[in-house]
Design brief:
This protein is of the alpha/beta class and 508 residues long. The protein has three domains: 1-32, no CATH class; 42-243 and 378-497, Alpha/Beta hydrolase fold, catalytic domain (Rossmann fold, 3-Layer(aba) Sandwich), CATH 3.40.50; 250-373, no CATH class. It has 15 helices and 14 strands. The protein has helices at residues 2-12, 19-32, 178-195, 210-226, 246-252, 255-264, 270-273, 277-298, 304-318, 322-327, 334-340, 372-391, 417-427, 446-456, 481-497; strands at residues 45-55, 58-72, 78-89, 100-104, 123-125, 139-141, 151-155, 164-165, 203-208, 232-236, 348-349, 357-358, 432-438, 466-471. Strands 1, 2, 3, 4, 7, 8, 9, 10, 13 and 14 form a ten-stranded mixed sheet that branches. A two-stranded antiparallel sheet has the order 5-6. α1 (2-12) packs across α2 (19-32). The chain is globular and about 65 Å long.
């Protein structure tokens, strides 16, 4: 059972696994979801509850609509029902100018639970100020929610949360792939906006992790298939968005993340450790682009003495010994870094948030036994979302809430989502982009997120509508209380700044 859970988590969070493990995972997932087989799924139902919360000292009344809405095929037949939670502020007089934020998490295969009850929504799960689980489990008010400035709908793709296909005979290819996912979700969003009467509203997409791939593609698909134009896209801990790194860039770009993590664990030389994180990192970034990347590009033609010099600098900036760096030909794998950095202390560091420590069966080896941060997060999120939906949102069902659902095999071919987003921005002068990254995220690291922006807009003509924000935490930066407040305020400011003045035309 423990192996089953581990494999599910690896797949849902986009970790590489062997083909044999994937086959085993699929079989085990099928067994675990067999309890749904005798339940009758209703793709179109909802409940409404009314609430009041306090955000930034202001009382905010709101309505929560929770339920399922169909995905229709070309013939108007419901082929799936997506579970969603839609929060509307109820004391707003001018709904036409009220922004709407459409929120997705990632995986692929993850429910839209993480940002829902830990980031932008009106409720927070019960955790400590650094994001660690505490008991009793539960939910409290979110005083930093963006509900004061925008309504929010949290959407769960097929097989996540309570979302399901209407029949096991519906081909999985309609849902489980980069472009299939984007296509049917654009159709669903079009239907939701129509049903909710939100066509007049300024619209925003926010996605986390694989959700950034999703919303980057949706920005263009919504324009092309729904004729829906956005004001903003927010990418939280973005993937590579289909941008090919190549061997050298793939090897080099991870170093600034290594350095940030080593700084946090006090593994850097005294002169670097004495600097603040954001004062130290520019030196590492400069070395990465101007020395390390060219050196790795040279491969075996790199002079032996120069290779040793470069290895020494990598060691200085990463907290890993020069010997280990040379043994790995200047390219220390992520897994090895998570195992090696604190090996002498008997700990590993987390992948998604490297502030977290883990304990392995043995100190030897090339990779950690488990992801220390992920088990911690599931510890607190799973009971809280199940309790909240049933007890406060009054949505009752016997279906299992899939934190991570069976969506594999996932077709990753044709991922051009960075280019999709660039095209959408080029075609829509109103469209703005903000990227949010945690310095200690080793899955979707902050420097690769910056690299995305440089490669997505090589001409620099869109630069004024792009921004990047960094936070002193990991993949889910909002789990740290200080970053929760700052990151939500950054979203609030982004929304306000991307709303055009009345009558301002969308033109260059």
């Amino acid at each position: 059972m423990r192996k089953t859970i581990l494999l599910l988590l690896l797949a849902a969070l986009n970790l590489p696994v062997q083909a044999q493990e994937k086959a085993s995972k699929a079989k085990e997932v099928s067994k675990e979801t067999a309890s749904d087989a005798n339940l009758v799924f209703n793709p179109d139902q909802s409940t409404i509850t009314n609430h009041i919360t306090t955000i930034k000292g202001q009382k905010i009344p709101y309505k929560a609509t929770t339920g399922t809405m169909p995905v229709w095929d070309a013939d108007g037949k419901a082929i799936a029902g997506l579970f969603y939670t839609y929060y509307e502020r109820t004391d707003v007089k001018d709904r036409a100018s009220r922004p709407l934020v459409i929120s997705f998490n990632g995986g692929p295969g993850s429910a839209s639970v993480w940002m829902h009850i830990a980031y932008t929504g009106p409720k927070l799960l019960n955790i400590d100020d650094e994001g660690y689980p505490v008991q009793p489990y539960g939910i409290k008010e979110n005083p930093y929610s963006i509900l004061d400035v925008a309504d929010i709908v949290f959407v769960n793709p097929v097989n996540t949360a309570y979302s399901r296909a209407t029949s096991k005979d519906i081909p999985k290819e309609k849902f489980f792939g980069v472009n299939a996912d984007i296509k049917y979700l654009a159709d669903w969003i079009g239907g939701f906006v129509t049903r909710s009467d939100r066509w007049a509203s300024p619209k925003y997409l926010i996605g986390e992790s694989y959700g950034t791939t999703r919303v980057s593609g949706l920005a263009l698909e919504l324009q092309n298939s729904q004729w829906m134009y956005l004001n903003g896209v927010i990418l939280v801990s973005p993937t590579t968005l289909g941008i090919d790194r190549g061997v050298a860039a793939d090897a080099a770009l991870k170093l600034p993340y290594f350095s940030a993590t080593a700084w946090f664990h006090k593994k850097l030389p005294a002169d670097l450790q004495a600097k603040d994180l954001t004062a130290m990192l520019p030196e590492v970034e400069d070395f990465t682009l101007n020395e390390l990347l060219p050196a790795i590009s040279k491969g075996s033609s790199l002079d032996k003495q120069k290779k040793k010099e470069i290895a020494g600098k990598i060691a200085r900036y990463s907290g890993i010994s020069e010997k280990v760096v040379l043994q790995n030909n200047l390219d220390v794998p992520f897994n090895y870094f998570w195992k090696e950095l604190l090996r002498d202390e008997g700990f590993t560091v987390g992948r998604l948030d490297s502030r977290y420590k883990g304990i392995d069966r043995k100190d030897a080896g090339d990779s950690p036994d488990f992801n220390a941060e992920l088990t911690s997060w599931l510890h607190s999120f799973t009971p809280s979302i199940n309790m909240y939906i049933r007890n406060e949102l009054n949505y009752k069902t016997d279906f299992k809430y899939n934190m991570f659902g069976p969506v594999h095999p996932w077709d990753r071919s044709g991922d051009e989502t960075a280019e999709n987003l660039r095209q959408a921005m080029a075609q829509n002068p109103y469209l703005n982009l903000m990227v949010q990254s945690g310095y200690y995220d080793g899955a979707c690291d902050y420097f690769n997120a910056k690299y995305n922006l440089w490669q997505m807009d090589p001409s620099g003509k869109l630069k004024d509508r792009m921004s990047w924000k960094g936070y002193r935490s990991g993949h889910m930066m909002y789990l740290r209380k200080q970053d929760l407040e700052t990151a939500n305020e950054d979203i609030r400011t982004f929304i306000k700044n991307s709303l055009p003045k009345a009558g301002a035309p969308a033109k260059y």
